[in-house]
């Protein structure tokens, strides 16, 4: 299997307060079914279930290999900050520390899905790198905006997306009418 290495996006000014982690990090576009992607998504869903007290917190159809246009995993070299506390890793390769994907919505719109960063790596810029890679991928395909849904019990996610230029919008699609769902959008031009 070949893993496409994605170019590192320029760090946004608002993330400059975060010191980069010790050691090298990189992102790779991987198939939805890649073991690292599956493991990170499982940890993301477990964390969401703990926050909301249920495993049934996904409004509408869950993302899948059939509808996820791209999936990105962030890696850290073994021995880098917190990498020894992260499950997984590959001999001679990196340790998976974060992920995210995009679902195409049509009409030049995409939806950010399954953004997750291992707790030891939060606040290091990994989430911004993953989101930047997804935004760049979407721009290269002519998408005009990205949307996302997060919940009212995820203030850190809300702050992160607001810092990245995402603005609150009326709930869309399966999220319409759900009081605990908060939707956001960012134009890509």
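^ Assign residues to that structure.
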């Amino acid at each position: 299997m070949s893993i496409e290495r994605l170019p590192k996006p320029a760090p946004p000014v608002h993330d400059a307060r975060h010191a980069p982690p010790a050691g090298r990090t990189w992102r790779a576009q991987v198939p939805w079914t890649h073991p690292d992607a599956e493991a990170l998504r499982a940890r993301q869903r477990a964390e969401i279930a703990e926050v909301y007290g249920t495993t049934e917190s996904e409004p509408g159809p869950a993302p899948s290999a059939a509808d996820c246009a791209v999936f990105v995993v962030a890696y850290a070299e073994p021995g880098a900050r917190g990498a020894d506390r992260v499950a997984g890793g590959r001999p001679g390769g990196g340790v998976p520390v974060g992920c995210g994907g995009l679902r195409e919505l049509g009409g030049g719109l995409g939806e950010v899905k399954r953004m997750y960063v291992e707790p030891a790596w939060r606040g290091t810029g990994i989430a911004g790198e993953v989101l930047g890679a997804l935004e760049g991928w979407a721009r290269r395909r002519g998408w005009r905006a990205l949307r996302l849904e997060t919940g009212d019990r995820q203030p850190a996610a809300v702050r992160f997306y607001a810092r990245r230029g995402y603005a609150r919008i009326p709930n869309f699609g399966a999220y319409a009418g759900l009081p605990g769902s908060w939707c956001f959008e960012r134009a890509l031009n």
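Residues 1-21 have pLDDT under 50 and may be disordered.
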